[in-house]
């Protein structure tokens, strides 16, 4: 059974710092991995999607990497801003089959202080 | 482009009562997901529809939860009877085709069972 963990559970940094969020998964047989952002009281917003054949994806100040063999992904946020404060979740999708679907991690709660 | 719509946004009921949630996905999206998110945890997939057929409902407590997606567009999720442990945010998401695509989430329905 796929399990996803995220470290740290919470993180507080001053504005302008670069930071890394970590995601680990137990079963390397994944189809893709997604990083999401969740603001309080709201749904999730997809940030980056990495296919299993890819090593990384970039969008603006965000860079996500994937090391499938070691069961790890990182989300790098450059030059953090107060508006980046949110909970960040990763989710893995298993190799295409029916019976098990997306598994989410518990999230990392990020606070960027002005 | 309109996003995923959900209603109601909040619901408070007493245990053993029934409740229903509604979701309208993004136009043209074939795949619809219902997730349960308990406070402090990542979302857990309850059921996935592809058009109006069920792809995965392995984690849906079928003795009390039911869901349908008539005509392959809107969907309703029902709980009958509700238990205290059903208190959570219920998120609906949709994607264009399925597992390979980005999921777009609605704002969620926060359910409190007293």
Description:
The complex is a heterodimer of chains A (114) and B (114). Helix content of chain A is 0%, strand content 58%. Chain A contains no helices and 11 strands. In chain A, strand 7 and strand 8 form a beta hairpin. The mean pLDDT of chain A is 91. Chain B contains no helices and 11 strands. In chain B, strands 2, 4, 5, 6, 9, 10 and 11 form a 7-stranded mixed beta sheet that branches. Chain B has a 4-stranded antiparallel beta sheet with strand order 1-3-8-7, with no helix packed on it. Chain A binds chain B through residues 4, 31-32, 34, 36, 41-46, 49, 51, 89, 91, 93, 96, 98-107, and chain B through 4, 33, 40-45, 48, 55-56, 58, 91, 93, 99-100, 102-108, 110.
Q: What tags apply to this protein structure?
A:
heterodimer; A: 114 residues; six-stranded mixed beta sheet; 11 strands; globular; B: mainly beta; four-stranded antiparallel beta sheet; 48% strand
């Amino acid at each position: 059974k796929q399990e996803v963990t995220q470290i740290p559970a919470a993180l507080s940094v001053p504005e302008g710092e670069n930071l890394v969020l970590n995601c680990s998964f137990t079963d390397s047989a994944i189809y893709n991995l997604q990083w999401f952002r969740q603001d309080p009281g709201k749904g999730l917003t997809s940030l980056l999607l990495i296919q299993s054949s890819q090593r990384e994806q970039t969008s603006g100040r965000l860079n996500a990497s994937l090391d499938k063999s070691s069961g790890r992904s990182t989300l790098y946020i450059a030059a953090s801003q107060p508006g980046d404060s949110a909970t960040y979740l990763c989710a893995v999708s298993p190799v295409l089959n029916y019976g098990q679907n997306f598994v989410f991690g518990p999230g990392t709660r990020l606070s960027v202080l002005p | 482009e309109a996003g995923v719509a959900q209603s109601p946004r909040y619901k408070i009921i007493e245990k053993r009562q029934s409740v229903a949630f509604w979701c309208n996905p993004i136009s043209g999206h074939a795949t619809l997901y219902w997730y349960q998110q308990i406070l402090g945890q990542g979302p857990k997939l309850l059921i996935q529809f592809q058009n109006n057929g069920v792809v995965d409902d392995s984690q849906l407590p079928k003795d009390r939860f039911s869901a349908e997606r008539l005509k392959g567009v809107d969907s309703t999720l029902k709980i009958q009877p509700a238990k205290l442990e059903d208190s959570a945010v219920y998120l609906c998401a949709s994607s264009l085709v399925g597992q390979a695509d980005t999921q777009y989430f609605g704002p969620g329905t926060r359910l409190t069972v007293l």
